[in-house]
Write a structure and sequence with these properties.
Shape: globular
Order of helices and strands: EHEHEHHEHEHHEHHEHEHEHE
Largest sheet: 6 strands, parallel
Strand order of the largest sheet: 4-3-1-2-9-10
Structural class: alpha/beta
Helix content: 40-55%
Number of strands: 10
Strand content: 15-25%
Length: 272
Amino acid sequence: MPIGVFDSGVGGLTVLRALRRALPGEDFLYLGDTARLPYGTKSGATVARYALQTTRVLVDIGIKLLVVACNTASSVALPGLAQAYPGLPVIGVIEPGASAACANAPRGRIAVIATGGTVRGAAYQAAILRHLPQATIATRPTQLFVSLAEEGWTEGSVVTDIARRYLDPLMAEFPEGGPDCLVLGCTHFPVLAPAIQSVLPQGVRLIDSAETTALCVAEELCTRGLLRQPSEPGQVGSARFFATDDPERFARIGEIFLGEGIATSDVSQVDL
């Protein structure tokens, strides 16, 4: 069976991109809940309900593992998903991202940017402190980054001005050179990484949870005996796409996040 991946929109395609590189023998189903994005401005109860609905679509088709490629949903929905689907392995993006941040914070100084919902839920703070109890953490909601990414505005003075407006006060919370690293706590943010990096103090490392999440998925599949190896060198598994609104826009904007073209004919619209 394929691996299921869902997000509120197209941002989770950055995670799918990393998954396909790390797991070339696997097939994937990706669902973007584009009719109801963004999740980051919704209440935790609403996001948890949406996560159950999107997961049901993927489970009904048939998946062997679920990746919650949305930081907001990962912060509030994992317990409900585990209860609803006790036999289904579920991996979110927050725990792998927190682990990577701690590994790249020799002084224990970690900054996190995310949507308002993820920041309010304090899931990153809790996960980081589980790995590194002495960590110094500062967070900031950066909701406009989602809109910029969705519009494909990834460079230019407008983007860097907004990045500076958000990040200068956050960096000021870390005297003497800023934090060790900055966690990109939303799957939309990696496409803005060059603009974000350009306004950070020298030496601050960006942490994108996509690569670490892919490693966690590979480990989980190996542990359960579910890993599918490529049948021949150079093989890449298939990917099917679903969206809850406007497949044409999903395909057009999704290319920015996936790093390759998506044909509109390859995107099926589903109702939840």
